[in-house]
Amino acid sequence: MHTKFPSSVMVLGVVSNEGHVMPPHFFQEGLRVNAAGYIKVLETVVKPWIDQVAQGRPYVLQQDSAPAHKAEVTQEWLAQSCHDHVTPNLWPPSSPDLNPMDYYVWGVVEKDTNKHPHSNKESLKAAIVHVMGNMQEEPLIRACSRFRSRIEAVIEAEGGFIEWKTQ
Predict the structure, then answer these.
(1) What is the chain's Cα-based Rg?
(2) Distance, CA of 78 to CA of 34 (rounded, Å)
(3) Which of 44, 70, 57 lies closest to 16, judged by CA?
(4) If you write DSSP's letter for every residue of the chain in order, what string do you get?
(5) pLDDT per position in the chain (167 positions), as tens?
């Protein structure tokens, strides 16, 4: 089945470098996520999950460069509420090569959820939940472990694009 306007959903995903995968959080259809809405999800969904996984150990929260993530109020909340986080001034904008969610997780989710057509959004959401809930731990750990070498490659390229070959 092909359609001109396929179903889409806005989903927040979080993984740990130890292979843990947070159940995906789906945003309300049509919602434009602003800083206040994002902070609410951080408070009620993300932070409790991280605290459970970290079990009191220190951690670093990495985000992408979405406007709600970079907002001053979000950065203030992260500074007060999280052990540590990567601030926007230390993170290059539009850097999918440096985010395991972008260079690994979403590719796995998309590949697996697109194996079969979805006639509605609930079917798509169920497929995303299934894929993320059954993601293999070892490949995820390997993907996260590539983080440092990817940062070094971007530094060597002086912030430019990098070619990355998977092994």
Answers:
(1) 17
(2) 15
(3) 57
(4) ---SS-----EE--B-TTS-BPPPEEPPTT----HHHHHHHIIIIIHHHHHHHHTT----B-----HHHH-HHHHHHHHHHSS-B--GGGS-SS-GGG-HIIIIIHHHHHHHHTTS--SSHHHHHHHHHHHHHT--HHHHHHHHHTHHHHHHHHHHTTTS-------
(5) 455 555 678 999 999 999 999 999 999 988 889 999 999 999 999 999 999 999 999 998 988 888 999 999 999 999 999 998 888 887 776 677 778 888 899 999 999 998 988 888 999 999 999 999 999 999 999 998 988 888 788 788 877 777 766 54
